[in-house]
Amino acid sequence: MMNGDFRSERRPKTSKQTFLTQSRATKKRSANAKMKTRRSLEDRPPWVQPSVRGAMPTPDMTVTHINQTHDRVRARDMAAMFNEGQTSTDWLKNHSIEHFNLTLKDLLSKGQIIRPKNNNNKRLDGPPRELQFEASVVNEFEYKLYESIEMYHNRIRWLLKGSKKTFGMIKGNKVALVIDSSDSNCGFGRISHFRESLMELIDEQLHNREMLYLMSFGTDLDTLWHTPRYTNIRILDEARYWVNSLSGTGGCNLLAALKKVLKVKDIDSIVLVMGSCPDQNAEALVEYIEQAAVGRQVPLHCVTFDCNNHLTNLTLRKLADISGGRYHVYASGSEEQIYTGTDITMLLREIRIAQDVINKIQEMRQGMMGDALVSILNEISLEVQKLPQSRFLPRPPNHTGPLVLEEAAFLPKTSEDWLQQNGLKGKRLSLYQVLAPNAFNQIEEFIPIIRKSVRSQTHEKAMTQFEWHDGTIKNVHVDPALLFDYQKQLGATVKLYERRVDWLSKDSRRLFGTLTEKRIVILIDLSLSNANYLVHIQHSLRLLLQQQMLNKEAFNIIGFSSTARSWRPFMQEPTEQNLQMAWKWALGLECGGSRNFLAALRLALENEEDRKRNMTVDGIYLFTSGIPDQLPEVICSFMEEATIAQPTRLHSILFNVDDYDSNGAIPGRYANITQTAECLRTLAHVTRGRFHWFRETGIIESDDIKGILSEMDKAVNYSQKCAMLVDSVKKRSPKYQAELMNGSSDDQPKMLPMRPSSAKRKALPAPKHTELSLARLQITENKDKEDGKPLPRSRPSSAKKEPSKMDSNRIASEKDRKSKRPSSAHKSKPSKQVFYTEFKNEVGTVYKQYPDILSKKKSVRKAINHPVIPDREELKTTKEWLKLYGLSKLRLDLSKLVSGPECTHAKRHIGTLNKSVTAKYCTIFPSVNIKGTVRHLQMQAHELQDYEKQIELVLRRYLRRLQWLLGASRRTFGAVVEKKVIVLVDTSGSMVSHMEELKRELVALIWDQFQRENISFNIVRFSGDIEPWRNGLVEPTEINCHDAVRWVSTFAPAGNTCTLEALVHAFKDKDVQSIYLLTDGKPDSSTARVLREVAQVNTIRGVKIHTISFNCEDETANIFLRQLAAMCRSRYHRCYAGMDGDLMAHKLLDEGFKDIDHPILPTFDSDDLKQLVDEIEQARHFLSQSRSFRQLFGTTTKPHEKNKSSRHMPPNHIKPSMTAAAT
Q1: Mean pLDDT in residue range 636-651
Q2: What stretches of 310-436 show up as alpha helix (H) in DSSP?
Q3: 8 Å CB contact between 514 and 705
Q4: How far is it, in rounded angstroms, from Cα 1214 to Cα 1210?
Q5: Is cis: bond before 926, omega within 30 of 0?
Q6: CA distances (Å), 762 to each of 151, 237, 738, 765, in order?
Q7: What is the model's pLDDT at position 557?
Q8: How wide is the angle at C-alpha 857 spanned by C-alphas 851 and 863, nearest 5°?
């Protein structure tokens, strides 16, 4: 909402408060205004509660001033009005420079007129010749101008999308579309593109009109309908069919078409699409439109469709101007002609007006504007203005710090070389290599008896015909087992390729690809077009130097713009010292000029110093964002000639940036991004190099990744052919034919072994005792044995499996007797589950539930909890937050989840065998060490996998909390959780080197925490004396916050550190809940005295004293601050490695938790950060433990493998501790 709207809403309220008596007319106007306001409020859409799920913490540069927020909301609302279907004329009525009060006249009205003074400091008589402006007013005015220019650019981009780029914005609800169908427009291969464009116009702009009327004209006229038709689905289908049937119909009788369409009633807009020169001259057409337009306002929207005749363009422009319509140009071969249309021309005119005002502001900063003197108060110094533009670009953390070098563990290869060893053919996994031993050529011979050639039929019936890679047909014997094993190998190979692609898409390889040569030269594009991306280029070069340079023999860096300059005259060895010096040289690079590729290549290849040392360049890596100044043919010819005697490869890397600003730097040669990519791709392939194309969002094209993806597609194709071969064998089986007759066959190919056709279904036999029944009998005997009751001797297990009739009756009587036995609660038995083992027909049992101990029903196996932690950050200390969302509270403590019974091997009496035996199948159950005790692992593999998924979700939430604690003012002051606080700020002489940083952090604290969270506050400055900002706590209103920021900006370091006096002064405020003490050293008085005095004063009140160590390296002072915070049960904060922690947290969130031990989070001294990092490390430890536990399921020895493994087991081998109750 504009400022004028605010004033219009406030006016009735103000008038009502000012005058006590009002006339009837005034009251009536006031009532009407209130009614309009009420109606506008009722017409507003209903409020929708916004979702904050997945919200990230706000960055440090978030706008906190309320006026700036209103300006940004207004700009966003203006940007949302692009798609209202308005023409530029209508749109600019509410969005022009004049409407926003941003003209030069409006700027001058904000200045203050000052009369000139003489040497005696007296004002002279005469007309004033000097203007004076406030710096904030000028900066805000200039910011709004740049914002308006960006808005106009966004609208131009919107007008150049879809059908609006071809036909412009169509206005009107009842539209007549008149199309040129002459031979010139519909011939020469233009008709297909013309039809596609018209179909796009119907689908995007004409489908929502009220009425449509379509007509084409050549020598004769052709109308789809006699009168306009109301738009519906059937009408749109008829229009699409009519467009698809368009063809050339002779000449271009435009006059007849205009006469016809102007006689049609019920239309309010005519769209005329021309692609050729009309048969009539321009004067006749203009004269007819002038006469026909009298008394009828039907605007002509004239569109020139890919027409190179300038007379046609002039004619259509005149027709549009006379009829009050608009003119639009579309030219596929010339992008500049599109900007001559009516809508875009008006926007460009507004951009020029805004740019002129900006130029005047630049003149004002120089002190003159015309003949008048101009002075701007509180302006930045001239020294700051002399700094290059790149100094004001945002930089990543530790951008100017020394390199952190990483040595590669292996020598990287290009994907082409890597696939020679790991490709499908290199691993002999080509389908034709696998099928070759079982593939036979078709035999065809001439038989003299019958006098004709006969082909063998036995192989065709017994084998499958398969097309070979050379196009021939061969008979193949299909072995499903072989193909199944082959598909498993294909799956493993595809996973290897996926890991390779993932490796190529990370770190510096995402930016430069892999550096495979030993002696390399890096060419960096420093043209003026890259001025806004210089920090990105430097950061990319930093990653390259850190990760891929230590294993090379020699390297050099060349930066080029209009001229080329190298880091060293010849290639240097990549030692640590040389790499650090190269990085310092890269930090001093500045952008300017164009892209002189040829000069950079000559400097790299024609280096006499390198030739003297017999060092040839193996690889050149060209990092650029645009096309060279020279023609591509010239560059390619030079590279071919220069690399004849040396195996040098040129690898081109294209950094995709946004198109340049028309008011900014214009390169020497311009090409769109597709043409640039094609040029650099050709340049790389000429020298057998590689092409790499990326942007900030990811890789667009890479020769290395393309080769891997091609091999993956080949593997998928081979897998599909395997399934088809197995399916062909399956269809020949008698069972499949029978199922096909019954209509129950499955057409989907499967790699499963089929049952033999001899296996027929038999009638089910009568029920009899199975092995599981015997197992139940044994359990019953064990229970009776434990109760001390004698059991009749059972038959040995070696006897016949089926029990006799007497045994059956005995078992039935036993069950009847036990069912009648009363149950006792105090003699509860553990429940068991019976299962078959892998060895013959033996069975075993496992405990499922144990007796109730101490009246607490506690299950051995615990379910995995699925916790939900709110995404919105709560204003709590980490200690309080972890009480709600810690691992123990969320029931994700792995030690408690896997703590089952102890792994024991006690002997037990078995009634069936009549002897005591130990557990026989303990190796089935994995055992783990839990806090020094060997226990059975009670969780299965899928449960551990579910646990890992939940712990990863909790870890991500913890890391986002860590990022929030390290963001904005919380990085320095921690989280302010109380609602009434006093901040004690140390401004002693030792703070001189950190005073500017302290001021910035205090300003961020005021706006980011106090004002946003509605925290009442006061600030007290102390050094040799004490100076409070206010006498007591104040509310965080906008006025108070502004005043606090102004007061903080006056801080000057001087004097001693009277910490005790500042604390005593803060305790005088009866309403204070907590005190935040920020200092960089020990107090003037003894630390013991400060602790003693604070303890006496604070014993009853219990005010929290949170201490903040600000750039303090004195460990004694840090110990004092830690003791003071602990004594008051408060928090100690010292953000020593805040930026590194934020970077490591971001890296963990980005890369995941595949490597548990890397990256390592830094050690924090802050209580909040330390507790949270400890919980994160505990969660990572649990995740590592869970993965190791899950691997036990794949390495546990099965009973049937026991004998095989024992043969190869050394005599001193000790088995892992496993246990189970087995029979």
Answers
A1: 83
A2: 310-323, 342-365, 382-385, 415-422, 431-435
A3: no
A4: 9
A5: no
A6: 81, 62, 17, 9
A7: 94
A8: 110
* Structure tokens belonging to residue 534: 């210089």
| C-alpha closest to that of 588 among 619, 554, 609, 557 | 557
Tokens representing 686 are 């000429």
Q: Which residue has the higher pLDDT, 752 or 84?
A: 84
Are 490 and 719 contacting, i.e. CB atoms less than 8 angstroms apart?
Answer: yes
Q: Which of 862, 910, 509, 858 is nearest to 692 (CA)?
A: 509
In the structure, what pLDDT confidence band is assigned to residue 1018 with cuts at 50, 70 and 90?
A: very high
CA distance 112 to 127: 14
Distance of CA 872 to the CA centre of its chain: 20
pLDDT of residue 130: 64
Phi, psi (rounded to 5 degrees) for 475:
-90, 125
Contacts of 213 (CB under 8 A, 6+ apart): 174, 175, 176, 177, 223, 224, 225, 227, 228, 229, 261, 264, 267
Would you say 1024 and 986 are in contact if contact means Cβ atoms under 8 Å apart?
Answer: no
Nearest one of 332, 340, 333 to 302, comparing CA atoms: 340
Tokens of 666: 């214009």
- Under DSSP, the state recorded for 531 is G
Please give the residue that has the higher pLDDT: either 746 or 1073. 1073
Spatial neighbors of 852 by CB under 8 A, at least 6 apart, are 828, 858
Looking at residue 568, its amino acid is: R
Q: Which residues pair with 230 in a beta bridge?
A: 211
**Phi, psi torsion values for 1075, nearest 5 degrees:** -120, 130
Percentage of the chain modeled with pLDDT above 90: 6
Strand positions, DSSP E, 885-926? 899-902, 908-910, 915-917
Q: Any idea of the CA torsion for 732, 734, 739, 740, to the nearest 10 degrees?
A: 50
Q: Which residues contact 1168 (CB under 8 A, 6 or more apart)?
A: 877, 878, 879, 965, 974, 975, 1131, 1133
Residue 625 tokens read as 């964002």
End-to-end C-alpha distance for the chain, whole angstroms:
82
**Paired tokens of 26:** 């005034």
Q: Widest CA span of the chain, in angstroms? A: 137
Q: Residue 982: which pLDDT band, with cuts at 50, 70 and 90?
A: very high
Please, which residues have CB within 8 angstroms of residue 1062's CB and are 6 or more apart in sequence?
984, 1020, 1022, 1026, 1077
Q: What H or E segment, with its residue span, contains residue 1122?
A: helix 1115-1127
Q: Give me 898's structure tokens.
A: 């896997």
Residue 181's nearest CA partner among 92, 109, 274 is: 274
Which one, of 935, 855, 846, lies nearest residue 895 by Cα? 935
Residue 701 near residue 677, CB atoms below 8 Å = yes
Q: Say what the pTM is.
A: 0.37
Contact by Cβ (8 Å): 1213, 912: no
Residue 235 and residue 209: Cα distance in Å, rounded?
Answer: 11
At 565, which helix (H) or strand (E)? strand 564-566
